[in-house]
Amino acid sequence: MARKIKRTIKSKAATGEEFTLPEAPKPVDTNLQHYTTLVYGREKWGKTTFFSSYPETIFLMTEPGAQGLSIFEFNHEQGGIRNWNDFRAAVDLLEQSKRFKNVVIDTAARAYDMCMDWVCEELNISYPGTDEYGVQDRGKSWKFIKREFMDQIHRLKRTGRGVCFTGHSKSEHHKSRTGEEYDRVYPDMSGQCRSVVQALVDMFFYGEYFKDEQNRTVRCIVTEGDEMIWAGHRPIAGFGKLPQFIQIKEGVGYETLLGAFKGTVKGYNALQLGKARESDPATQEFLIGQRKERGKEGVKSGKKVVRRVVKQ
Predict the structure, then answer these.
(1) How far apart are alpha carbons 213 and 200 in whole angstroms?
(2) How far apart are the C-alpha atoms of 219 and 109, rounded to whole Å?
């Protein structure tokens, strides 16, 4: 006989905490700082500078690069975050304090590598994939790394602070099955790290230089990409989508993004921008595709845009 399941509205957790089903939808969170964000781009674009404009922010720096900025940096006297134990210590202290509204992890890839090294040491293995006896562990060690990294980030998020990541960019050359070659721009991190970070963030932006309609070089974040540029964000109820290109000026990055978040900063579209001279080739392909979709360089057909590629 099948076991009868007792149906009830209330449930009690192992800790004794009671739960109830919601009576109404939760309100939309309109606080930008509660949206986990990644900004990645070429070196010297200004990723750390961008996040330094966030209010009451502490930086967990995993590599040098903030010497010219007056910021709150954890353990800066000893070199910042040197290993995953340092990172865990920072999380412990932040859980016990009400100081700071935002935490910036600079960079995500280096922090993930530290986490991987820590887990491998805990498991007494040299690299994920096998157990301490050299036997294939069927992905168990990779799962431990993912769980440890996400657990620490979730601890930070549960404090009510904003959590942000930085990352460097890289251009990867790809070849399709038909022999077509093309470039893609991604964060410079392993595939495992990228999948974990992407699951954590609400917004992932690419920082690049462009030319505006007056041929001036402007520093922008790309908020929505395609197969050429890795960028995107979840729609914001009540506000919709962000402008695809947002100019970021030094010192007012947070205010500018907040204005775009609330719909008061309009930003640019692809028809208003050209590639800056030093930009990655993939950015040019990205702009060409976006212009085609907007009808500037061809008739908008509603079909998928075919990128200009080099054949063997």
Answers:
(1) 36
(2) 23
Confidence of residue 282 (pLDDT cuts 50, 70, 90): confident
| Residue 138 phi, psi (nearest 5) | 55, 40
Sorted by sequence, the CB contacts under 8 Å of residue 282 that are 6+ apart come out as: 171, 182, 183, 184, 185, 228, 229
Query: C-alpha distances in angstroms, 260 versus 26, 54, 220, 309?
Result: 23, 15, 13, 33
> Any idea which of 85-89, 95-99, 140-144, 240-244 has the lowest mean pLDDT?
240-244
Query: Model pTM?
Result: 0.84
- Residue-range domains of the chain with CATH: 30-297 (3.40.50)
Over residues 213-267, the pLDDT tens digits come to 899 999 999 999 988 899 999 877 666 789 999 999 988 999 999 999 988 999 9
d(C-alpha 43, C-alpha 47), whole Å: 8
Ramachandran bin of 299, using left for φ above 0, alpha for ψ from -120 to 50, beta for the remaining angles: beta
